[in-house]
Amino acid sequence: MHLVYVPVIHTQDKNGNSIDKVCSRDFWKGRDSYRKLQNAYYEYITSKGFELERGLPAEETGRKHETIQNYKQLTNFENTKEVLKNITLELPEVPDIKDIKKIVFNRDEKIANEIIKPKDELIQKPYTENRSLHEELSKQEKLVDMATEHENNHSKIIEDNNTLKQRCSKLEEDLENKEKDFGNRIVDKIKDIDSQYRQKINDLEKGNKKLYKMIDKFKVTLKKFIRWLCHKFDFSSEDQIIHDFERETHNKFNIEKQFDINQFEKKEKYYER
Asked: Alpha-carbon distance 183 to 181, whole Å?
């Protein structure tokens, strides 16, 4: 038998109802799915009382698939094709029994039954066999042509797959190189920014140290100046001079408060209002 079948699977729809669906992708699962189908078919047929011969797996027999070239050599494919082209399946001309009867004037049917019919059967039998062989050879020719076409398509698919694999590998390599290059540039940029900030911080720290020294020197000079004023103009005390200065000028004499940043910001907001 030559079986043609549709890959129907038993599944459920979105609502959970049992349905039959045509789906080749879900029907063929795994490389041994075709072997499982053959085993299931064999078990089903034999369970119904029919005799069916099941072939042994290649792991047990050690058989291997023949290549198309070897198969053509084994079947003498090229010569067979030429023979098929030249074969004629016409029966040779044989005497008609009726004509023979006319010749003998229906006098003796023994000639027809014992000579003509056996000869005719001898001719008919090889003719039938030759016709069957011709049909079988035609099938083999089509099979080889299909196998050759499949082999060419298979080679083309493998070649395309190899090309795609090479392109994917090249793209992965390019992407990896770009990621490394981008990462290196980011690291270099971070180092550069960090170096700039460190330099600015160092410059600010140096400037702050210089300002602190200037402020300390100014405080010492200011104290000397207040003492000099008290001595020069006979003021009773230094505190009295500072108190009078703050009262008349509305400014704090405390040096730390004078350089308080928050104090400056409050004054700026006040002037803006």
From this structure: 5
The per-residue pLDDT for range 10-57, each reduced to its tens digit, is: 999 989 999 999 988 888 888 888 888 889 999 999 999 999 888 888
pTM above the 0.70 mark? Answer: no
**CB-based contact 91:127 (threshold 8 Å):** yes
Q: Looking up tokens 């694999």, which residue turns up?
A: 165
pLDDT digit string, tens, across residues 124-147: 777 777 777 777 777 777 777 787
DSSP the chain: -------EEEEE-TTS-EEEEE-HHHH--STTHHHHHHHHHHHHHHHTT-----PPPHHHH---PPPHHHHHHHTTHHHHHHHHHH---PPPP---HHHHHHHTTT--THHIIIIIHHHHHHHHHHHHHHHHHHHHHHHHHHHHHHHHHHHHHHHHHHHHHHHHHHHHHHHHHHHHHHHHHHHHHHHHHHHHHHHHHHHHHHHHHHHHHHHHHHHHHHHHHHHHHHHHHHHHHT-S-HHHHHHHHHHHH-----HHHHT-HHHHHHHHHHHH-
What is the residue whose two structure tokens read 């299931």? 40
Contact in structure between 62 and 47 (CB atoms under 8 Å): no
What is the C-alpha separation between 250 and 12, in angstroms, rounded?
Answer: 91
Q: Are 157 and 151 in contact (CB under 8 A)?
A: no
Look up residue 164 and give its two tokens.
């795609």
